[in-house]
Amino acid sequence: MLFIVIPVFNRLKYTRDCLLSLRQQTRQDFRVVVVDDGSTDGTDQMLAREFGEVEVVTGDGNLFWTAGVNLGIRRALALGASRIMTLNNDLLVLPDFVDRMLYWADQHPTAVLGALELDVATGQPVYGGERLNWRTNTRHDLLAELPASQRHGLHPVTYLPGRGLLIPLVVIEKIGLFDEKRLPHYLADFDYTSVARRHGFPVYCNYDARLSTYPEESGQEQTRRFRSLRGYYQHLFGIRGGGNLRNFTHFSLKNCPPQYLPYYLLNGYARRLVGYFMH
Question: Which of 51, 57, 149, 213 has its CA 20 to 30 A from that of 31?
Fold first, then answer.
């Protein structure tokens, strides 16, 4: 049984719309676990009133993404999950999303799968996975490189985000849960899928499964929208900072091949120190 784990903190409207899109799935052989980390906007009442079928786990407001997802996964495993999918609440899944994910999961039962992301406003693809050259710290954007005729099926990638990430039970049994101690928010998803790949599990972006995102609502975009010294500090050192130097260091030490590590670290630090002002 597939269990979909969604960590939430406030943003009630996004959570409702996301859950409604799951109700519209052509396949309904899944269950949903929402981890409500101390929301103060009535999310708990809305879930109880409108989504009685959803399993709700509550936190105290200090879980952040990684610990929230882990709490939901533990609950799903206790309920008998054989597959886990992590999903963010600020997205919508197209009606055949679950069907297309489970189809390919059945074909590749040990693979970790992500999805093609569309801009909710335009319907145009915005993210289709990437391949990283560790030696040069350069990323190859699959969307930019794949012709439209090849934008279907599975494509191998270096890592995947946690938005619509399907994880077989065998992967969890082998490598455990997300690294909430060292990566409490950002990079935990890229780290987890990188570790899975290093342990021999295929990691693919599934171009047949599509979800719609709100690119401007990401934490990184919120931080960069109004640039300031305080924002710069949060970018580099805050738990939700997209350029968090500590998180990047942990990710690099865990995943970068040792022979490429010095350059990868220096190049990555430089990009984070100046990147806040470049976008």
Answer: 213
How much is the average pLDDT of 209-234? Answer: 71
The Cα 118–Cα 126 span in angstroms is 5
The CATH label, of 1.10.3370.10, 3.30.70.1350, 3.90.550.10, 3.40.50.720, for the domain at 2-216 is: 3.90.550.10
- Structure-token pair, residue 25: 């799935």
What is the model's pLDDT at position 274?
A: 84
Roughly what angle, to the nearest 10 degrees, separates helices 261-275 and 229-237? 150
CB 193 within 8 A of CB 160: yes
Instruction: Specify whether the CB–CB gap between 196 and 112 falls below 8 A.
Output: yes
For residue 17 the two structure tokens come to 């719309």
Mean local confidence (pLDDT), 179-194: 95
Higher-pLDDT residue of 241 and 148 is: 148
Mean pLDDT of 182-198: 95
CA dist 126 and 129 (Å) reads 10
